[in-house]
TrEMBL record:
The chain crosses the membrane at residues 50-71, 78-100, 120-142, 174-191, 198-216, 236-255, 267-288, 294-315, 366-385. Pfam families: TPT. Residues 1-38 are annotated as: Disordered. Involved in the import of GDP-mannose from the cytoplasm into the Golgi lumen. Residues 50-337 form the Sugar phosphate transporter domain. Keywords: Membrane, Transmembrane, Transmembrane helix. This is Sugar phosphate transporter domain-containing protein. Residues 9-20 have a biased composition (Basic and acidic residues). PANTHER family: SOLUTE CARRIER FAMILY 35 (PTHR11132). It comes from Cordyceps fumosorosea (strain ARSEF 2679) (Isaria fumosorosea).
Length: 390
């Protein structure tokens, strides 16, 4: 469910995902209009925004790394079961929250009946299931680092889908901007040592289905009464998604499952795994309620970089110098596409003022920050060079 939850949240955010990346926007104001409503009951104003950013990055990265370990390292090669289990757990938790808490009371503001559900929600759920299946199957064949690089192209595919469905008019200036992302992803793909054509195909299918889902979400959210935060979306999506994935799992995977497959992982770890996946949705709500669209975008980029580094350290995934260059180009293009030049200029000015302020008032902190940044780059470069040797 690595990609599963990245899609449900990061794409209700992102990444994500889940969603906040639903539309091709180039300014903070435009992105903010697409943000789901905040849930002040979940947000504690006494906590610094950095806590919510760290919580979201930890849960989002943790889900992906945890599931990569379950599917690959523990040799539990049943991704359909894993997504079904996560969705079943999420459905049970959201039902309990709706019954015994007030955290999902905003669902009452969404006009929902059976006909509306079939017309507006069910197609999204089907595409969501297909994106989860395609994405999770990819983890059986590709490294976490390479998958994260491929996910950078999600913004491009979503943009093209919005043009195809005539949600926004084609803009070839924007197309020129996003072509940088494609260029970077192509360079990174050509540099992949452990390239697997079937895994690549699964990931591409997952990205396409996710882009189509985001387009349908954007069309749905164009009506004010259908604005839903990630938890309410999960409340509606999870039961049917679990049923669809479960039906496919019963046909494809169940005949070959044995008790030994489950014993290799252990029931307690399956439970912890589902809890971490569910906490990702909670952290997404908290992050949305406490930060801005700019912070969400930059947090997603930081998370992707940390995931690449973590996969290199934990799983020994090789990342070549060519991939490092290509992924850097793709990330740069992604940031420019999502934030726009005006926002980036404003951020650069704010960063300059902040650095000058720290240099004047806290010079020691600035030195430590520079040393930490240099150390990170040295370690990352060393890992990349080590991984470039077959």
């Amino acid at each position: 469910m690595a990609q599963a939850q990245y899609s449900a949240a990061d794409r209700h955010s992102s990444d994500e995902h889940p969603d906040l990346e639903a539309g091709p926007t180039n300014s903070e104001a435009a992105q903010s209009q697409a943000l789901p409503p905040k849930q002040p009951g979940l947000v504690d104003d006494r906590l610094h925004p950095a806590f919510y950013i760290a919580f979201w990055i930890a849960t989002s990265s943790g889900v992906i790394l945890f599931n990569k370990w379950v599917l690959a390292a523990a040799n539990f090669r049943f991704p359909l079961f894993l997504t079904t289990w996560h969705m079943t757990f999420a459905a049970a938790m959201t039902q309990l929250m709706a019954r015994y808490t007030t955290l999902l009371d905003s669902r009452h503001n969404v006009p929902m009946d059976l006909e509306t559900y079939k017309r507006a929600i069910l197609p999204i759920v089907i595409l969501f299931s297909l994106s989860l299946i395609g994405g999770n199957l990819a983890y059986l064949y590709l490294s976490v680092s390479f998958i994260q690089m491929l996910k950078a192209s999600n913004a491009v595919v979503t943009l093209l889908a919005t043009w195809a469905f005539k949600i926004v008019p084609p803009n070839f200036n924007v197309l020129g901007n996003v072509s940088i992302i494609v260029f970077g992803v192509v360079i990174a793909s050509l540099g992949e040592i452990k390239f697997h054509s079937l895994g690549f195909l699964f990931q591409v299918c997952g990205i396409i289905f996710e882009a189509l889902r985001l387009v349908m979400v954007q069309r749905l959210l164009s009506s004010p009464e259908f604005k839903m935060d990630p938890m309410v979306s999960l409340y509606y999506y999870a039961p049917v998604c679990a049923a669809i994935n479960g039906a496919l799992m019963a046909v494809v995977e169940l005949p070959s499952m044995t008790l030994a497959d489950f014993s290799r992982v252990g029931i307690p770890l399956f439970i912890v795994n589902a809890i971490v996946a569910f906490l990702l949705n909670v952290s997404t709500v908290l992050l949305i309620g406490k930060t801005s669209a700019v912070v969400l975008t930059m947090s997603g980029i930081l998370k992707d970089i940390l995931l690449v580094v973590s996969s290199m350290v934990l799983f020994g995934d090789p990342v070549t110098g060519q991939q490092f260059i290509g992924y850097s180009i793709a990330l740069g293009g992604l940031v420019y596409y999502k934030l726009g030049s005006d926002t980036l200029k404003a951020l650069a000015q704010e960063a300059t003022l902040a650095v000058n302020n720290v240099r004047q008032n806290h010079p020691a902190r600035l030195r430590y920050a520079i040393m930490a940044g240099v150390l990170f780059l040295v370690v990352f470069t060393w890992l990349a060079l080590r991984g470039s040797v077959p």
